[in-house]
From TrEMBL:
Belongs to the FGGY kinase family. Residues 240-423 form the Carbohydrate kinase FGGY C-terminal domain. It comes from the Bacteria. Residues 4-221 form the Carbohydrate kinase FGGY N-terminal domain. Keywords: Carbohydrate metabolism, Kinase, Transferase, Xylose metabolism. This is Sugar kinase. PROSITE patterns: FGGY_KINASES_2. Pfam families: FGGY_C, FGGY_N. GO terms for molecular function: kinase activity.
Length: 481
């Protein structure tokens, strides 16, 4: 038996869980908020938040720590290891033009997908680098080294050693490391920034980043998405559908997926496997917009939707309110089709909103299925997963068993599990190929059952309107349910 800690430094807060290495049971936990300061953040605030979250002897007896941190962050350091400017975090809209420039510079979306498995977006570090070179050239010229938030926190915890490390998961979200080859594309860093820089060493999932002067093991760490998947226990045959304002679908897979159409982003996971991701721009924002139109809240919208029937009396809502990434329709708008006197009722519009959102996510899921990704079970995440209409409609439309985990600090739990793995390997009690087995997340399970044919009919109704309205949008169309 031992005790480990998982630290998750998100965009909003630091959360720490202290766990038993054998059972994964949470023994203690801590929390502290981060100051809300926009897209530019002093990373010292993360350390202050960490210290506050760990007050009261929270880490007493801990033998190893794993670190999860927000993705889409960039820390540019000078030759002395000092940041040349505040950390750039989040989906930084300032970098939109820079991302477009980089896409053109390499020859298009397909060229980037082939090179690193990801097309530049404003959130990726490579796009932030191009923005920095164009907008703050004096700072850009001083950059000698690049880290991401989790890399920087691990380095600080270790006392700022000469060695800098990262892991496959975080590296795969930079736009200049390929999960398929396991190599950096330093030419892409130079393309973005204009000169070469030092990049952290990419270490294995169970390999320690180092030990503190007190002998505390610090594991490799990873990005939040990868840590949450590890904390949930996502494995082969599982997919995760995340319901935020926008949506994402990802799954654990045994190999990187080359995608000439650039619909799939090829991340790596926290275990040595791969984590192909498909994004949608529209998820819960579709429900919120519909609720505002009908003058109700989301709970009332859910109740309305359940008064309708599958197919919403022929009403079909293509939910492309902000344009769309899957399919690639950046300049389109949403479409409401099938308006007839009998369908023009609040409950049918509510039902069409839920069905449209879920059909859009099912399209994203089918992109993965069409590339050979096995999906037997779907984890549904986000506060809106608790809505009765989502739970009632999702299994049949997504075409698989749906699992809704109880709320928990899954990213911090994944970081703790990684720490336990590295600690076990260092002691010879665990294999580098087999992480510790911790109990599955407590959850509710919803089966498609007899509703599966009905769900397929709704999908077909949706697909007919989608393909008529946007012919050719899925040139490599999603697989059939």
């Amino acid at each position: 038996m031992g005790i480990v800690a998982g630290l998750d430094s998100s965009s909003e807060s630091t959360r720490i869980v202290v766990c038993d290495t054998d059972t994964g049971a949470v023994l203690r936990h801590g929390y502290a908020p981060h100051p809300m300061t926009g897209s530019d953040v002093d990373p010292q605030a993360w350390l202050l938040s960490l210290g506050e979250a760990a007050e009261g002897g929270l880490l007493e007896g801990v033998e190893a720590i794993g670190v999860s941190a927000q993705q889409h962050g960039l820390l540019a350091l000078d030759a002395g290891g000092v940041t040349v400017r505040p950390a750039m975090i989040g989906n930084d809209r300032r970098a939109q033009a820079a991302a477009a420039d980089l896409i053109d510079a390499l020859g298009g979306r397909g060229a980037w997908a082939q090179a690193v498995g990801a097309v530049p977006q404003p959130g990726l570090a490579v796009a932030k680098l191009r923005w920095l070179a164009r907008s703050e050239p004096e700072s850009a010229r001083r950059v000698a080294e690049l880290l991401q938030p989790h890399d920087w926190l691990v380095w600080q915890l270790l006392g700022r050693p000469a060695r800098r490390t990262t892991d496959r998961g975080a590296a795969s979200g930079t736009g200049y490391w390929s999960a398929a080859t396991g190599q950096y594309r330093t030419d892409l860093v130079e393309l973005a920034l204009g000169h070469p820089v030092r990049l952290p060493e990419v270490i294995g999932p169970a390999e320690p980043a180092g030990h503190t002067p007190e002998g505390l093991l610090i594991s490799a760490g990873t990005g939040e998405t990868m840590a949450a998947a590890f904390g949930l226990g996502v494995g082969i045959g599982d997919a995760v559908v995340s319901l935020g304002a926008s949506g994402s679908v990802f799954a654990v897979h045994h190999e990187a997926l080359a995608d000439p159409g650039a619909t799939i982003t090829g991340y790596a996971d926290a275990t040595g496997m791969h984590l192909p991701v498909v994004h949608t721009l529209n998820a819960v924002r579709v429900l919120r917009g519909t609720a505002e139109m009908l003058g109700c809240d989301l709970e009332e919208l859910s109740a309305l939707a359940l008064k309708s029937t599958p197919g919403a009396s022929g009403l079909v809502f293509l939910p492309y309110l902000e344009g769309e990434r899957t399919p690639h329709l950046p300049h389109t708008a949403g479409t409401l089709s099938g308006l007839r006197r009998e369908s023009m009722k609040p409950e049918h519009l509510a039902r069409a909103a839920f069905e449209g959102m879920l059909c859009g996510l099912a399209d994203a899921l089918d992109v993965l299925r069409g590339r050979g990704v096995e999906v037997r079970r779907i984890f549904l995440l986000g506060p809106s997963a608790d809505l009765p209409a989502v739970r009632a409609i999702a299994p049949a439309l997504l075409g698989a068993r749906v699992v809704v985990p109880q709320p928990a600090e899954y990213a911090a739990l994944g970081a703790a599990r990684q720490a336990a793995w590295a600690l076990g390997v260092s002691r010879g009690t665990l294999s580098p190929q087999a992480p510790p087995v911790w109990p599955a997340a407590a959850s509710q399970v919803f089966e498609p059952g007899d509703e599966l044919p009905v769900g397929q009919a709704v999908r077909q109704q949706y697909a007919a309107v989608r393909d008529q309205t946007h012919p050719g949008a899925f040139d490599h169309g999603p697989a059939a349910v």
